[in-house]
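Summary: Need help interpreting a holo structure output

Steps to reproduce:
1. Submit the protein chain below together with the SMILES for zinc ion.
2. Request a joint structure prediction with the ligand placed.
3. Inspect the structure token block that comes back.

Expected: a single structure record containing both the chain and the bound molecule.
Actual: see attached output.

Input attached:
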Amino acid sequence: MTRFTSYLAYLASANNLGDDIQWLFYPGMLAESTSKWWADFGDRHASHEGIDLCFYRKRGGTIRHLETGAAVPAWSNGTVLHICKDFLGHTLVVEPDKKIAGPTRILEVFSHLDPHKSMAPGTRVKAGQNIARTSDIQPKSRTQARRPVLLPHLHLSCIEVPADTPVTSLNWSLFCLRKKVNVLNPVFM
Ligand SMILES: [Zn+2]
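--- attached output ---
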């Protein structure tokens, strides 16, 4: 797997942000946080299974955030295993080529996205290649208006699952079951 700092550089490059970028985080954006970083900043219903990437600034500059449609690059060379819906868009599940030996596999999970049309199970991806765009998560209708207003962002997870898990089961129904999967902190990859 590629290091997390390299991924931040890919994300900045994919969006032409320049190479002197600081990424900024509310505590609720970090792995295992139990608080929200939107609406009332209250409690999450479960601790955060990854990290949310949204705010950045050029050193000393104004704080900005990723817009809807921001480019999302792949993290490592790998293969798309599954694409499923999440509560703010779609999730892409990628298995990096550098697999670990043993009875589990570690997956890179990208959420709240509109995947590129060329993405499908079995698609090969290269580190830094654009694979998706951040989805439009602003309320569009009266039924959606109750949703908390949340800025577009990339949710990134590293999930370790039993190696024999069927690819069609690689979704958030499984990823939130801490008894069945290990949720790893992307920052330390
Ligand atoms: Zn998140």
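--- end attachment ---

Reviewer comment: Residues 48, 50, 52, 155 surround zinc ion (CB under 6 Å). The chain has one domain: 4-188.
Status: needs-info
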